[in-house]
Amino acid sequence: MDDTSSNPPDIHVRWFQVDVPELLSIAPITLNPNPTWKALTRVESDACELAWRNLKAQGPVDTPTVDTVDDLIPLGKPFDPQEDVTLGVPVGKEQLFEVDVRTMKLRPIYWSTGGPSIDVMRAVWMYTESRPVESELSEKIENAYMSIKPWLPFYQDELRTAHELGPEGREKLRHPIEGTEYTLVFNNAGSAQLISTSHTTHGLASMFSGTKDFGPTTVYRGCDEVAIHAVRDPPVKDSSLESYKNGQVPPEHCRQGPIITNGKRAVSNKMEENVHEVTDLILIVHGIGQGLTAQYESFNFVYATNMFRNVARKQSVSPALASIVRSKRVQFLPVQWRASMKYDLDKKGSKDGLDNEFTLSEITPKGSIPFIRELTNGVLTDIPLYMSHHRERMIESVCYQANRTYRLWCARNPNFETQGRVHLVAHSLGTALVAHILSNQPTIVPPLSTVPPKQAMREMEHFLFNTSTVFNLGSPLPVFLRIHDTQLIARKGRERTMSSPNDEALDRVGFFGCLATDSIYNIFNPADPVAYLMNPCVDSERARELPPSSIPNVNAPVLAPLRSRMSRLFDFSGGSRRKSAGSPSGASPLERSTMHQGMQVGIELPDSGSEAKVLEGDRAERRFKALNSHGTLDYFLPGEGNLSEYVDMITAHSSYWNDPSLAAFILSEIFVKKVDLLRTGIGADELPYSSY
User: Fold this and answer.
1) Would you report the helix, strand and coil content of the chain in percent, each value rounded to 5?
2) Which of 46, 58, 267, 286 gives 20 to 30 Å between its CA and that of 692?
3) Where are the beta strands (DSSP E) in 484-554?
4) 485: how many CB neighbours lie within 10 A of its CB?
5) Please, how many CA atoms are within 13 Å of residue 94, restricted to the half-sphere of its CB?
6) For residues 622 and 504, is the Cβ–Cβ distance under 8 A?
7) Residue 167 forms beta bridges with which residues?
8) Secondary structure of 114-143 as H, E, C letters
9) Helix or strand or coil: residue 357?
10) CA neighbours within 13 Å on the CB side: how many for 90?
C-alpha cells in the first residue's frame, strides 16, 4: 500500500480463543479466572475476520440473548427459517465448534452443555505472537491510530523533529489513553509504545535513546508485524501473564505468553492440511438418566460421546483397522433427546374431575440418602415414563434432535447428503425409542434437499435420513418386543431385501419390529443386567443353534485371533462369517469368485450387475441374513478378568463408552470388506458364549 494513502495499511488480524485444556473433553471444564489465550489458525482467523467485516458492513445487528443453541422441542414454536443457516465460522480439526462473531463466543455446533462459554478475541494490536492486547485497550489504541495516522510520511518528520527538540518536543507526541494512566507514542505504521504517565518524560527519552530504564511496552499492529519482530528479537521465555485491568498494563517481563498451539508463526501463510471429508456419520442415542444433567453437568451425555470418539480415534490408527478404514472418516455426534423434554413430575397437574394431586417429591421417602434418591428419581423414572402416555413425547424428542443434528451437519457438509451414510448407536432405553421410530419410518426417505425447509424443521415422526446400520448397546428392546407380542423382521426394499419374499422381509411401515435399516447388531456386556438377547426375536428355534458371537479383545495377544482367522477361510456362506449361521452348501459361486479375485488384488470386488442378490438358506437363515450379513444379531464384549461378577454388574451398563473392543468392532463392521477379515482377523470371533 502507498504510504501516502489516507487509508491505514492492510494487516492480518489474528483471532484468539480462551485457552481450555480440551474442547472435546470427557468431563466438565472450568476456566481460569485469569485465562490465557490460544491463537486460531491463520485459515480460521481469516474466515472469522471475513465474517466479522461482512457483519459490520450490514450495519447494526440484533445480538442473540444467548450464546448456546436452543435445544427445546419447538412444540408451538414459530417457524424460524434462519435456524439452519450457517452463521458461525467452523474451527478446530474436526470442525465441531464454531465462532459466532455476533456474540464473540466459541460454541459447539451440534450439542449443548452447561459449561462456561468460551470467549474469542479479535486481536488488532498484540504484545507478542501469542499475547494479544486486551480488547478494550486494543480498541482505544486503534482509535488513536486512526486519528493520528502514523502511516503517513509527515509523521516520521514529526518524530525526527521531536527528537531534535528534546524533552519538550517529545512531550508533544504523547497521546493519553482515556481511562488509564498510560500514554501512547507511535513508532511507525506498525508499532507503538505504551508508557506510564508517572514516567512519561523518562520513558520517552529511553524510547528514543534505545535504553530500557523504564521499559516502555511495545505493541504491534497485526500478527505479521509482531512475527517479524519476534524473529528479529526473540522474547524472554516467561509464562507469567497478567490481565489488563483497572487501566494497568502488564510489565515488560510478563509480556511473553505461551507458544501458539498450532506451532506456526503468524507470518506464515501456509494452509492447513486438507482432511478427508466425513463419509460416515454416527448418531449416538442415549438411554435413561439424562434428566440429571440439569443438576449435575458431569452426567451430560456429551462427555460420554467425546470419550467414545477418542477411543475410536485411537483404535482407527491401529495397523489392522487403519488398513480397513483407509481414507474414510467417521464422526460421532450425540442426540440429546432427554435434555429437550421439559416435563416436571413435581408440578401439580390438572384435576380433570378428580380431587387428589400429588408429586414425585411427596411420594419419595424422606429417611433415605438424599443423593441416592435423587439419582433414582432422575434415572429410573425414564422407564415408567416410556411406558406411559409420555412415550410419544420421547419419540418426538429423539426425532427432533436427530433431525436437527442431521440438518446442521448437511448445512456444513453439503456433499454428505449424496455421498455419506448415517448409522445409529443406541443405548439402553434409546434402543426401544429408535426401534419405534424406524418401525414407523418410510423404507426409503427422500433426500433432505428435496424436503421443504418448514416441513424438515417440524418433522418429529421419523428421521430425515436413511439409516444404514443400527448398533444396539445394553438393549432392553427384546423385552418390549415380547410385551407387544411381536417379532423382529427385516424391512423389504432395503439393501439385501430388494427381492425378498414375504416370509423373509415385510413391506409394512408401522409394524413394531420391522425396522427401516440395512443391518442390526445387538451388543452387550454379559454382566449388564439391562441387556437381553435379540436372536430369539427373529426365530426362536434357529436362535437355539445360534449362540452370541464374541467380539475380539483388542488387548489380547497378537496371535490370539489366528485360529479364527484360519477358520474364516472356509466359513463364508451367504455373506455370513459363522458356518452355523450360513448355508451348509457354503459360499455361492459369485461370492467364491469375489473372494478369490479379491485376495489376488487386495480388495473386494463389487457385485456385477444391478440385480439384488437372493438370500440362500431356509426361512430362518434368510430372515437372519436379511437383518445382518453375518446371519446373527447378538454379540458380547470380552471380559477383562475382574474379581467379581457382582462388581461388574454395577458398572456394566455404563461401561460401553470407554471400551476399545467395542469401538474397533463398530468401525470394522462399518468399513470392513471380506478380504479385510481374512487378512486382519478383525470381526466377531466364534468363541461360544458359554466360554466367556
Assistant:
1) 35, 15, 50
2) 286
3) 489-491, 505-506, 514-515, 517-524, 549-550
4) 7
5) 18
6) yes
7) none
8) CCCCEEEEEECEEEECCEECCHHHHHHHHH
9) coil
10) 13
Identify the CA nearest to 629 among candidates 411, 451, 469, 390.
469
Q: What distance in Å separates the CA atoms of residue 339 and residue 333, rounded to the nearest whole number?
A: 15
Take residue 443 and report the three cell numbers written for it: 423404507
Sign of CA dihedral 485, 491, 497, 500: positive
C-alpha to C-alpha distance for 552 and 636, rounded to whole angstroms: 9
612: amino acid identity, one letter: A
C-alpha cell at 488: 423382529
Contact call for residues 563 and 691 (beta carbons, < 8 A): no
User: Which pLDDT score is estimated for 68?
Assistant: 38
Residue 332 neighbours by CB distance under 10 Å? 24
> What amino acid occupies position 483?
I
Under 8 Å CB-to-CB from 287, ≥6 apart: which residues? 382, 426, 427, 428, 429, 430, 431, 474
> SS3 of 363, please?
coil
Cβ atoms within 10 A of the Cβ of 341, count? 18
- Tell which residue, 435, 437, 426, has the closest CA to residue 286: 426
* pLDDT tens digits along 635-662: 999 876 665 676 777 788 888 999 999 9
Taking a C-beta distance cutoff of 8 angstroms, is the pair 513, 499 a contact?
no
* Residue numbers in the chain where pLDDT is lower than 70: 1-5, 60-87, 198-215, 231-276, 289-299, 340-354, 368-380, 557-613, 640-644, 646, 674-692
Neighbours of 393 (CB within 10 A): 19
Q: What is the pLDDT of residue 531?
A: 93
C-alpha 30/C-alpha 25 separation (Å) is 11
Q: What are phi and psi of 295, to 5 degrees?
A: -95, -35
Alpha carbon 413 to chain centroid, angstroms: 14
Buried b (16+ CB within 10 A) or exposed e, 558-569: eeebeebbeebe
- Contact indicator for 534, 478 with CB cutoff of 8 Å: yes
CA distances from 361 to 345, 365, 378, 589, 621 (A): 8, 8, 12, 66, 51
SS3 79: coil
Helix (H, G, I), strand (E, B) or coil at 221: strand
Instruction: Find out whether 309 and 303 touch, Cβ atoms under 8 Å.
Output: no
Q: Taking a C-beta distance cutoff of 8 angstroms, is the pair 283, 1 a contact?
A: no
Please give the order of strands across the beta sheet that includes 14-18: 37-39, 14-18, 118-123, 105-108, 97-100, 89-91
Rounded CA-CA distance 77/609 in Å is: 49
Cell matching residue 198: 508517572
Q: Record the cell numbers describing residue 369, joined without a space.
A: 440418602
> What pLDDT is stored for residue 405 in this prediction?
95
Q: Check residue 641 and give its pLDDT.
A: 60
**Alpha-carbon distance 53 to 612, whole Å?**
54
Q: How far is the C-alpha of 297 from the C-alpha of 407, rounded, in Å? A: 26
Positive or negative, the Cα torsion across 383, 387, 388, 394? positive
pLDDT digits (tens, 9 = 90+) for 426-446: 999 999 999 999 999 999 999
pLDDT on residue 21: 80
User: Could you tell me how many residues make up the chain?
Assistant: 692
Print the SS3 string covering 623-650: HHHHHCCCCCCEEECCCCCCCCHHHHHH
- Model pLDDT, residue 399: 95
Beta-bridge partner residues of 218: 193
List the one residue out of 686, 22, 19 whose CA is nearest residue 313.
Answer: 22
What is the edge-to-edge ordering of all strands in the sheet holding 330-335?
330-335, 280-285, 421-427, 467-473, 517-524, 634-636, 549-550
Cell numbers at 56, concatenated? 459490520
